[in-house]
Amino acid sequence: MIRALNESLKMDRSVYMQRLRPLAAIAVTFATIMPAFAADVDVQAPATGGAAITVYVNDLAMVRERRTFHLTTSPAQLAITGVTNQLQPQTAFLSVLKGNAVKIAEQSFNFDLLSPEKLLERAVGQTVTMINQNPATGADLGTRAKVLSVQGGLVLEVNGKIVTGMPGRVVYDSLPSGVRPTPTLLMSVTGAPNQDVEAELGYLTGGLGWHPDYVMQYDPDAARMDLTALATITNTTGHDFRDAKIKLVAGAVKRITPQPMPMARGPMAAKAMMMEASPMADGVAEEGLGGNHVYTIPKTTTIAASESKQLALLSAQNVVVKREFVIRGNASVYIMSIKDQPPQITRAEIELMFKNDAAAKLGVPLPAGTVRVYSPDQQGAPQFLGEAFLDHIAVGSEAVVKMGNDYDLTATREQTTFVRATETISLSNWKITLKNAKSKPTTVRLIEPMPGAWEITKENFPHKKLDSGNAAWDVQIPAKGQAVLEYSVKTQS
Question: What angle do CA 18, 19, 23 make, to 5 degrees?
């Protein structure tokens, strides 16, 4: 046997590593399999699925599903399979729906899953059987070997000799304790023996999150848009959810470490009050929950492991959109002299604004997400304009979608004079040349942040005081032309 082992060990290290790692490369058998979990009460997931899942935006979900089992003795250990590999055991609870009360005395989460590598790791210090083929006869030969190490490669002790490498198949006498083929939640429970129990299992898990994706089809000539939203759910839990009931929570729930175990509760039922002309997709209901909003998907859906799925969330047509070209200044220039510096050139930003109310054919809370904007070209074919982030928009608020710069509209800012009248008072004169390379006259909104107490003492276009810190001018620039704004400012800090 030693000779056969030594012959096999002539293989180079790269071949050994290729054989060690993949599951299919090692034929693992058991001479005597001990019933490691004979005392467990097997609690499997329902074959029909049907979990109720509340998905949050920050890679978190709450899973609730019905489980049935027969409690033969008390105490007993429930071996609950069909859970995710990112289950947070400290959040798990079991609520009895039918049967006598069951109390949890202890629980643990076993995610040390069965694999060839894990078996070798657990066999360190133990004796296994190495099966190798006799090169002369082709018959299988077996010898006992002690596993000394698996760090950087397999090290064995065979008949007092130290052997390295993977010479053949490994036969284990039994399955190591604590190693299971799937993630398993273990609960030590007490209760009335010899009873059938129907319960709801609930837990928090990572690996399941969602975010909204908006599509805006914008018609600049009509100043209208069609807005649709899809909820993108991503499942990296390693577990399939079949025919699940989905709720989506917009807003980040507060969390601390460690997470407290929630109190066991039965299924919650809530109905949202929806407006008659709601833009939500067919059957989708929205309701408030604390400071967040919950969207209930009407139909069950299957979300497979390692899958992203899009679900219809809302749709609104012919929404009024206002487009502005905005150029913003800098408050710091009003308290210092920059007249000897080169003129500052700024490009206009494109901002699309719409009101989130019933009059605008919306009127539901809009969760934060990415907006992708399309607009027709001269032939009427839709073209992608860009994407932007849309923050949470409450009902009655105005949404602003910033679409980047417009290279046809620029402002050249010059400080013509600057005087420090006192330690706190500054006087400055400004000339801003606005240019329009478009073939149509265009209005640009120039917003100038003003520090401290400020006053426009002279101007050739009237300004609007937006608030205590901002002045704005709406200046129309002729096609292929320019307009010059001149004004004087007194600021006091």
Answer: 105
* Statement to judge: residues 157 and 222 lie in one domain: no
Q: Rounded distance, CA 400 to CA 392, Å?
A: 11
Please name the residue ranges forming H helices in 107-264. 116-122
Residue 223 sits at φ, ψ, to 5 deg, of 55, 45
Rounded Cα distance between 393 and 203, Å, is 30
Per-residue model confidence as pLDDT tens digits over 330-364: 999 999 999 888 888 999 999 999 999 998 889 98
Q: What size, in residues, is the chain?
A: 493
260-301 per-position pLDDT tens digit: 433 333 333 333 333 345 687 776 877 766 677 899 999 999
Q: Same structural domain for residues 199 and 307?
A: no
Whether residue 128 lies inside any domain: the answer is yes
Average per-residue pLDDT for the chain = 84
Structure tokens at 91: 């959040």
Q: Does 136 reside within a domain? A: yes
Q: Do residues 89 and 174 share a domain?
A: yes
20: tokens are 């060690």
Last residue of a domain, one of 188, 206, 224: 206
Range of the domain at 258: 207-263+278-320+365-391
Count of structural domains, the chain: 3
pTM: predicted TM-score of the whole model, two decimal places:
0.71
- Residue 165: other Cβ atoms inside 10 A: 21
Q: Percent helix, strand and coil across the chain, each rounded to 5?
A: 5, 55, 40
Residue type, 449: P
Q: How far apart are CA 451 and CA 465, in angstroms?
A: 13
Give the C-alpha distances (Å, rounded to integers) separating 259 from 119, 251, 254, 256, 289: 32, 19, 11, 6, 20
CB neighbours (10 Å) of residue 399?
22
